[in-house]
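INFO batch 0412 | record 1 of 1 | parsing
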Amino acid sequence: MEEKHRVIIVDDHALVRAGLRLLLEQDPTIKVIGEAGNGRLAISAVDLLAPHLVLMDLSMPEMNGVAATLEIKRRHPEVRVLVMTMHKSEEYVRASMEAGADGYVLKEAAPEHFFEAIHDVLQGKTYLGVDVPAKAVTG
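INFO prediction complete | emitting tokens
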């Protein structure tokens, strides 16, 4: 049997984390191994649990997702980070990608696009959601 992709969910809303966990359980190739409610806890969880992928919200207390992504990628460059957020402005996209995010998907995306984003990022591809301004990363 193939090893499942280990995923950590980072969002400051417990209900969102629970919903994402339920959604991800539908994919037999994914195992949610942890959750965090802010960026500081996300860094600790990555240090401890060695995930393949971190699903990272941006707006969180204590440490936002951009700062957490930057630190996670500094410590663990092999860990993939997919930003999942409600923010679609160029500034957020640019900051996230400059911090090392491997993809950017909006929370309003359809579940099939969310899974496409996850699998593309896990395969080493960069993913930008259909409603994400690509010019933010292309200059």
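INFO post-check: The mean pLDDT is 93.
INFO record closed
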